[in-house]
Structures are given as C-alpha cells and as structure tokens.
Design brief:
Layout lengths: L1 E2 L26 H15 L2 E2 H8 L3 H13 L3 E7 L2 E6 L1 H13 L8 E2 H10 L5 E2 L2 H7 L7 H13 L2 E5 L6 H13 L2 E5 L1 E4 L2 E4 L21 E5 L2 E4 L11 E2 L6 E2 L2 H4 L4 E4 L9 H14 L1 E5 L5 E5 L3 E6 L3 H4 L2 H6 L2 E4 L5 H14 L8 H12 L7 H17 L7 H11 L5
Parallel strand pairs: 5-9, 7-18, 7-19, 10-14, 12-15, 15-18
Antiparallel strand pairs: 1-6, 2-4, 3-4, 8-11, 9-10, 13-14, 16-17
Length: 426
C-alpha cells in the first residue's frame, strides 16, 4: 500500500512537520492565541514560559511573543527565572479577564490551526490517494474466510476511496468485514489537528477514543498542534441522528465538537445496520448527496454561518435489508461498490469452525463438522452463516462452565448447543 500524489494537493509553506517560529506563520489571529494562553495560565499556572508553550502546543518563540503581549496588558507578571526562562503568574487584572473569557468559551488546550490549513492537509492525505494491492487485502483478511472474488471487490472499493454497500442477511459477517477494511487503511498515518479556529470559534477534531497516535512520528521540529495518527475508523449504528452529522455546540463548554464525518476524515466511516438509524435513509440521502458527489461537506455554526470542509473518507454502509427498498436509485448510484455477503459453502463453514475450535483449544471428532452442517441444512432448512460456528462453540463453553467441567467438542455437546441456539420450528 502506498500514497500517491493528490490532484487536490495545495502548496503549503508550513505543514504539520514544521513548527511555526513566528506569530505570522501560525495562521491564527494573535488575539485567539492570547486568550487561550491567558485561560491556561489562570487554570493551571503559575509556570514558566516553556511550560506554557508545551501546554498550548506552540514554539517557545511564538509563546514568548504572546507572553510579552499579555505582560504589556498587565495580565501576567514575571515571578522569577529558571535559567534564561521567565517564570510567570497571572495578575488580578489577568484573572478578571480570564474569567470573562471563560464565560464565552471554556476551551483552554492546544492552540488551534486555521480552517484553511485543515482543508489543505485533509485533501493532501485523502483516502483517494491510497493505492491498495492484493497483498494488502489478503494480509488484512487472513483471519476471515472469504473467497478471492469478494476480496478483489473489497480491494476495488478501497482504491475508490469513496463508498461501499455491504448487504446480506444477519450473521454473515458484515460488521467484521467493515472493520477489517478499515485496518487496511489504518496501516497508513495521517495528521489530525487538536482543534481548528473559525471566526474566533473553536471546533475540536482530535478524539483520543477514535484517533490512535503513531508514537514513532514524534519529532522535535513538528507542529505540535497536529497529532500523527493511524487513519481513523468511526463506527455508528442505530444511535445515529441528524444532529450528529453537524457541528455540536456544547452549551456548558461553549465550543464546538466536530461531527462524526469530520472525525472520520482521511479514514473510514462505518454506518452499521443502515436503515435502522434514528435518521431515515431518505434524510441521510438529502444530507449527503453533495458530499458523496463532490467530496465536500457544509457544516452550520450558531448564527447560521456555513463552513465548507473536506468529505474525504471511505464510507461503508452495512445492512441486512434490501438496498433497492432502502434507498432510491440516485443514492444507490452514488455508492460506488456493492458487495453481497451471503451463505457459506460447506468448505468455508468447516474452515471457520476449525479455526474457532483451535482458538478455544478444542479438538473436533472426525465427521462432526459435516454432521452439524447436515443438521443446519437438512433438518433445520437453514443456510450456513459465518456466525454459527462461533455461536455454537460459545454455547458449548458456557454449558461446560455451568457444569464445572472442561469444554469438549463432541456430538452430544454440539447437538445440545444446536438445540439451545436455534429456535424450534412451530
């Protein structure tokens, strides 16, 4: 897998790999940085200028400029020296100003980047620029039993960097496949900002629950307002609402949190159980027609201002419903690749069963897997699904735990598991 040059790439004088050494290179108004520094000093001070620089993720040189400005306004004072670095504390006048600032916004963390910097960097590291080859897909899916043709279609979807519709009955492994697709892209690293600034308003982007840091990327020279992470994976299910697709303003903290698609930028967004969300498929269609076509999204701020951000992610829609009944042809056309996951062959079912038994340290009796296949197909008149081996073996292990004995994969235990797992026919 490799990253290829982007048709959207924009020339940048300063990127995440290079820390700004002058205020003019930061890309954010000095007043915004001064406000964040003063709130930080109020909440966590006193400390040295160097420590302030670490807390707001700016260079010592830029932080020193901020310090001189705050000092000239009588908002802070020097209390001593540590070597050649001043130790500073907030004044009573600075404290009053900080309280006033906190009433408007509680944000007091790493300095934000500009909206334009975020847009440029996100375009530069788009998933559309990633080349995925058969070896990458085979390596990622080696823990699953999937035929070569289906793997080829997954590789095609990954190279599109656009969207994929996974559909089929429950229990065929749609969610497992979607999460595995994200692992192919997660081998790559991207820069994620802690926050961005728009009209003096802060929008947080980095989420430690979603964005996994690549520790090897640390460099003394990098712009610490950005975090080098694996390409993100965001999974949402039935809890998804229309509100989650727009900027979320917290009335307590008084700053914005980026929506799910913003956190998924440069990675994978999985819409699991599509069609069962609290937002209807039609409403999602209307919301995402432009983003799916043009790779841009529009978010609304308080007061009605709309901002344009990149929509640069692979979206995986996973559903057990019929796609033609869920969405209209116009929406279905915009989902570039469709893959149906269905019943397993006898050989695939047997291979999954053996793998899970090996994971649990269980030996299988000769002919036992063939017998359970026959029961499912012929006695129960059901097709073979990928979830059955793990679920049946779980039943055996739970029963053994209840009886206080070591689990064994024999005919008696397996038939008991079948009876417990599958509903009786009326």
């Amino acid at each position: 897998m490799k990253l290829v040059p982007s048709m959207f790439q924009v020339e940048q004088t300063f990127g995440p790999e290079q820390r700004p050494q002058k205020m003019s290179d930061v890309g954010v108004r000095q007043g915004v940085l001064e406000d964040i520094a003063l709130k930080t000093l109020y909440l966590a001070g006193p400390f040295s200028v160097s420590e302030l620089a670490r807390k707001i993720c700016l260079s010592f040189e830029v932080t020193n400029e901020i310090f001189f400005r705050l000092r000239s306004e009588m908002f802070c004072q020097v209390t001593g020296m540590t070597g050649n670095v001043q130790n500073i504390s907030i004044t009573s006048q600075g404290r009053a100003r900080a309280v006033e600032l906190l009433a408007h916004s509680h944000y007091a963390g790493p300095a934000p980047v500009s909206l334009q910097s975020y847009v440029d960097q996100t375009r530069k590291q788009s998933v559309r620029n990633v080349e995925v080859h058969p070896a990458d897909v085979v390596r990622a899916f080696k823990h699953l039993v999937i035929d070569d043709e289906t793997l080829r279609r997954f590789g095609t979807a990954l190279n599109s960097g656009a969207s994929l519709f996974l559909y089929g009955p429950p229990g065929v492994g749609k969610t497992a496949v979607a999460e595995t697709l994200s692992r192919v892209l997660a081998e790559d690293g991207v820069w994620i900002p802690y926050a961005i600034e728009v009209d003096s308003q802060i929008i947080t982007v980095f989420d430690p629950v979603i964005h996994r840091i690549v520790k090897e990327a640390d460099s003394e020279n990098r712009d610490e307002r950005w975090v080098y992470c694996h390409r993100p994976t965001v999974l949402v299910g039935g809890e998804l609402t229309a509100e989650m697709l727009d900027l979320q303003f917290n009335p307590s903290s008084k700053y914005y949190v980026g929506p799910v698609q913003m956190k998924a930028n440069n990675g994978v967004l999985i819409i699991d159980d599509f069609g069962r969300q609290r937002i209807s498929p039609d409403e999602m269609l209307n919301r995402w027609v432009v983003p799916l076509d043009r790779a841009i999204d529009f978010l609304t701020m308080a007061g009605g201002r709309k901002i344009e951000i990149p929509f640069e992610m692979l979206i995986v829609f996973a559903t057990n419903m019929d796609p033609a009944e869920l969405v209209d042809p116009a929406f279905l056309r915009r989902i570039q690749t469709k893959v149906k996951l269905g019943a397993l062959s006898d050989a695939q079912f047997a291979e999954i069963f053996r793998r899970i038994a090996d994971e649990r340290g269980l030996a299988t009796e000769a002919g036992l897997i063939g017998e359970v296949i026959s029961v499912i197909r012929n006695t129960l008149s059901l097709e073979l699904r990928a979830c059955y081996p793990r679920d049946l073996i779980n039943q055996i292990c739970w029963a053994a735990k209840y009886e206080g004995k070591k689990p064994m994969l024999d005919r008696h235990g397996l038939m008991q598991a079948v009876e417990a797992y599958f509903p009786e026919k009326s």
